Amino acid sequence: MSIFTGIVLYLMIYWVALFAVLPWGNRAPEGDELTVGHAGSAPVNPNLKKKFIATAVVAAILWGIVFALIKMDVIDFYQIARTMSQEDLKP
Description:
Blueprint lengths: L2 H19 L26 H24 L5 H13 L2
Helix pairs in contact: 1-2
């Protein structure tokens, strides 16, 4: 795996993990906490800094697992590409 491929793979894993982490710990405001100009469903304290850090850690762990699987040839993208191209040639 090249450096570019590794970075792209990490970014893809990061964005998928971010959407999984964003809902953690959110709660809607109650009665007195509502302020003018804010949506009633907006979280009181979204803790975005903690969520971005948690996402980076989760993505790094998942990227490490995928990287190890690629290096051990459990996942072989060249074989997948060959299989897909052979299926496209069949009538």
